Amino acid sequence: MSSQKLFISIDGNNEFDLDSLVNSLHFISEKTTPILSNTYQDSNGTDGHNFNLASFQNNTSTITMSFHFSTYQDYLSKKQVIYNAFLQKKIYRIRTSNEPMFVRFVRPVGFDIEPYTDGANDCIVTIPFENPSGYKYSRYDSLNQSDLWDDYNFNFDLPIMDREDFHFHNQHNFKIYNPSGIPIDPYTGHDDLKIIASYIGGIFGIGNNNNGTSYELKVQSDGTDQIVVDGMNTYINGSLNNNLSNFGNLKLEPGWNDIWTSMTTNDVKLEFPFIYI
User: Fold this and answer.
1) CA 211 centroid distance within chain
2) 86 DSSP 8-state letter
3) Continuous H helices in the chain
4) Contact present, 101 and 151 (Cβ < 8 Å)
5) Which of 62, 117, 174, 194 could share a disulfide with 271, CB 3.0–4.6 Å?
6) CA distances, 97 to each of 13, 51, 89, 100 (Å)
7) Neighbours of 115 (CB within 10 A)
8) Residue 166: phi, psi to the nearest 5?
9) How many angstroms separate the CA atoms of 146 and 144, rounded?
10) In angstroms, rounded to a whole number, what is the distance separating the alpha carbons of residues 221 and 169?
11) What is the rounded distance in angstroms from the CA atom of residue 57 to the CA atom of residue 14?
12) Which residues, including other chains, have CB under 8 Å from residue 43's CB and lie 6 or more apart?
């Protein structure tokens, strides 16, 4: 049997090892194939089609497991436990021991549990999970990991970083690293990105010199207000105040990003998960 492990969290509850679900259950494999979809536009009077856009689509993560049963009643009992665990109308977070740094947020669909052949006392079970985003994410986001190297191995060639590398105080210009394989884009990608800030003055602005994206908030603050830009929404001390912003957004490219802010008296944190295909 494989020495791999599969760890599962259901609706944000504590993670558990799949092998602990029933006696003799063994995780075999997890397989996911990314799907890139290209869209083309018809052009009357010319051959072929003009490329329009490309997008990553929802895909399927398939896990395979096996278990042994001694009697028919033992088979029925284990079958019911597995169905109870995996046929719920909830979000499942899955990760493997081979890639402990990555998680996928998926939903299960129907599956059969039968002996692999007539008269056998073993079942091989394949469970498909729908992955609506098509992505895999870092187990911890930028502000909730102690050290990137705690999860990522040396082959990822990441700089030495911890949560304080995403926290900036009284800096008009700074660089921030996005370890993701794709851009973090709250507007077109609907990706999670929070800007948590406080400042003294009448305007708070932040932008990325790498791609020209920016955000601006016009409100007087003495430094005690907490500003949270959550995706495309602005909250001041917990209250929604989109009308005071320019409805802009900050986009982070993979790798190093050169960031500017309009105020030198400020405290800025950027919170986001790292996203991969």
Assistant:
1) 22
2) H
3) 72-86
4) yes
5) 194
6) 19, 40, 25, 5
7) 13
8) -115, 15
9) 7
10) 16
11) 29
12) 49, 50
For each of the domains in the chain, give its residue range(s) and CATH number, in order of start.
6-134 (2.40.30.200), 144-276 (2.60.120.860)
* Tokens of residue 45, six digits: 């009077």
Where on the phi/psi map is residue 32: left (φ > 0), alpha (ψ -120 to 50), or beta?
A: beta
Which token pair is 157? 């060639």
H/E element, 78? helix 72-86
Residue 15 has which token pair?
Answer: 């993670």
Closest to 145 (Cα-Cα) out of 13, 45, 259, 273: 273
Paired tokens of 62: 């398939």
**CA dist 67 → 61, 114, 125, 158 (Å):** 20, 11, 8, 39
Of 54, 65, 77, the residue nearest 8 (C-alpha): 65
Q: What is the pLDDT of residues 49-100, one digit of tens each?
A: 788 877 788 899 999 999 999 999 999 999 999 999 999 999 999 999 998 8
Contacts of 114 by beta carbon, 8 Å cutoff, 6+ apart: 123
Distance of CA 108 to the CA centre of its chain: 18
| pLDDT at site 74 | 96
pLDDT surpasses 70 at 236: yes
Model-level pTM? 0.85
